Amino acid sequence: MRVALLELLQFALLVALAPLLTGLVRKLKARLNARIGPSLLQPYRDLLRLLRKEVVLAPNASWLFRTIPYVVFAAIWLAAAIVPTFATGLALSRTADLIALVALLASARFALALAGMDVGTSFGGIGASREMMIASLAEPAMLMVTFTVALLVRSTSLPHIADYLLTHNVGIRISLLLGLVSLLIVALAENARIPVDNPATHLELTMVHEAMVLEYSGRHLALIEAASMVKLLLYISLIAAVFFPWGMARDLGDARAVALGLLSYGAKLALGGGVLALFETSIAKMRVFRLAEFLGGAFLLGLLAALFLYVSQGL
Amino acid sequence: MLTALLPVLLAYGAASLSGIIFGRRAQVVVYGLSALAAAATALAAARFLAAGAAPESALLPLGLPWIGAHFRIDSLSAFFLFVIGLAATLISVYALDYGKHDAEAGRVLPFYPAFLAGMTLVPIAADAFSFLVCWEGMSVASWLLVLATHRQAETRNAAFLYLVMASLGVGALLLAFGLLAGGQGDYSFAAMHGAALDRWRSGLCFVLILIGTGSKAGMVPLHVWLPPAHASAPSHVSALMSGVMTKVALYGFIRLAFDLAGPAPWWWGAVVLLLGGVTALLGVLYAVMQHDLKRLLAYHTVENIGIVVIGLGLALAFRADGLALLGALALAAALLHVFNHAMFKSLLFLGSGAVLVATHERDMEHLGGLIHPMPVTAFVFLIGAVAISALLPFNGFVSEWLTFQAIINGALLPQWLLKFAVPVVGAMLALAAALAAVCFVKVFGTVFLGRARRPAAAEAKEVSALMLAPMAGFAAICTLVGVVPQSILGLVRPVAASLIPGGPGIELSDWPWLAPLGPDHSSYSGIVILLAVTFLTALSVLVIHRFASDRLRRSAPWDCGFPDPRPETQYTASSFAQPIRRIFGSIAFAATERIDMPGPGETRPAAIEVSLSDPVWEGIYAPTARLVGLLSERLNLLQFQTIRRYLSLMFAALVLLLLIVAVSQ
User: Rounded to a whole number, what is the distance in Å from the CA of A261 to chain B's nearest CA?
Assistant: First the structure.
């Protein structure tokens, strides 16, 4: 009963917190640029306004175009709920391990890219094509990080990974460090952040993700925006769960541990948002074909991390 | 079980005969009988597997005098018979209607049942002679089926290449059997089983097995014949060749390398593993570059064979090092992928056949927007596309997930080469999976979404229910196995247990979770994911429509304020693949783009020209072909000699042979 309640709390928490996190990143970025910036609550207002507007649909948009926003939002919401946030023992996390999580996110992206092609506009096509190009390097990089962690922990299940790192002293591992760098790059790419993509540009040609969803409006757009906010939260939670699990509640019966877990989770999110804002302000966006080197680097770092561990196992 | 196959073979014979005698008029009989026979095969095989029955043998007084033909069925044969039967049943039902669109049905009908009969016989053949006869029967029948469209020059080239490669393969198999049988001359599998070969002979035998079965399965670098041949055949035959015949080739590999060739040393596993990785990655890279729908699908067959071969290589390596549980896991992953690929590849080829019937187009650059006139085809094709891209919640993901679990445990292998090879192959597999998703966004996006690029696509009509039903059947199987993989893993387990000695029968499932190595390691549940996503989707639809807004207005697309109604302004398949071509193609295929941009004031159109070169063809086949050409030119002299010269040449040859015998004694 208690587990089920906490599970529900996690689901609700994710959707409730995600816009705040995005608002925080935007606010911090504005302050770093010496602007005042919009209020922290602005993302909530944007979403509510979009939800209340009517949808304008191209005449040849198919049923896929109309269903995909809901499915994508649901898939990313579920994916975020699978990642342990404040506690390790929640039941749903057995549903998918890290590999299945990667596949769940990939399925959502596959669907969005199809939606980009549906109306048959040039911007939709260019966005879909480039998004899939980025994914074709980021996804294997993430799998390589998965291999690295799985080798150390002997499991790909996320709560086990967090649990193991909480209870064992793994020391400072060069593989984990390489994996962390690789996962950070993947997180930037997957969330369409600078230097891979710029969510705030006004030139559609320089956008990737935004160009792909250019034809969406009203509640559909609100869902897609909300999904990307939840995805940002997901990646910060994931990095926190795999590399910085400290503070997570291991015993769900212990109310103090759960409260501590919630508090530390909030702190980790704020810290993650802060680092992201700082990084994004200090770097420029890359040309699209430079990305191959950037993401290919992440992939090779991940491979190197995994290789180190494969070779050192059983010695 | 073996007696149950007798009426099946008789039915195929009768179907073939009626195809010869009555031609096009016998179409319903040919495909109807084939469907019934294939269904009977699948049913009998499933019952054999589910009952855990003991192997059965039979000795028929056919073939070579005094030796006869040995047949035997065990769980491995039964599993492949099940895959063959199930796929062939649905494909034959589809052909009932699709066959009407064949321009030259008389060139298809007699050979179709013969092809099926050959594929049914290979897994139960239990001596070298009957194995090779059935194998060749299957090859020749499929070759004749490819030639059904012989009026296209492209087909004739493809068929010639197929013939050359099939001959090479069977030659290698012949020698491999020769080595396995040793000097005793007993060519039954029972005698070969556990034949003790020395290191060099067994190594040579392994290489020959790899060439013989790899060339049929489409392993890189022996894959060159496969895409043109599979693409040229009529679509239902393409589905059989890609979805089913490559599986028979893999059966041959498993039977020979795992079962007959004795204890395999670890380096066999390493070689197979690396070949699998290269095959998977190169296959998908070729596929991304294609814009012919059927050729693209055929290249994806190469990729998927690579994925299966990775699993087989891991299984060989784990088995050689005594890690029986992990070996069984890797083998189960490979066998499950065999089943899965047979299902979704057949579905996709049947879908391409439906597109071909509706539009007469195979070139994706001419299609578009087919989701509107062909909603059911689009829906089932989408399921196939998601399944082959290894995405949730379909069957392709389950087998790749199991393969990844085996790869992660590859660190336990003691050999250095394997310690390096396993993560590298894992990276290749990860890349291949991601690129497959790119490729199928491209396929579905250009063929079914967007706007029609040619009138043929705009005027397309949905195909008949008889063609849609088998496709829907395949789609349902892909979904069922993805969501409840336990349904099929029960059939895979006995096979894995029988080939990995010493291993406990691997327990793959912990309902509703799939947890191959116990609950503490990794788990996955397709059904929970499907239910959760469905529930959350329904919840958001309800909440938003109830409390926010459900208004909708149709209006021109936005496209940044400059929507252009001409369909040419859409992204095409080639433009979609351009980033991949630049990133990977420049390494793998030396891809270059030449852009000809007219200066200001010039009136000629701008042009872009892309050139790709196939490293395998340029590196191996083209030099070989040149060498063969050169040699035959030189040896051509021999054709214009007098009888005296010929006699002296024969004499010289005889002397030479005798000398060799004398020296070697």
Answer: 23
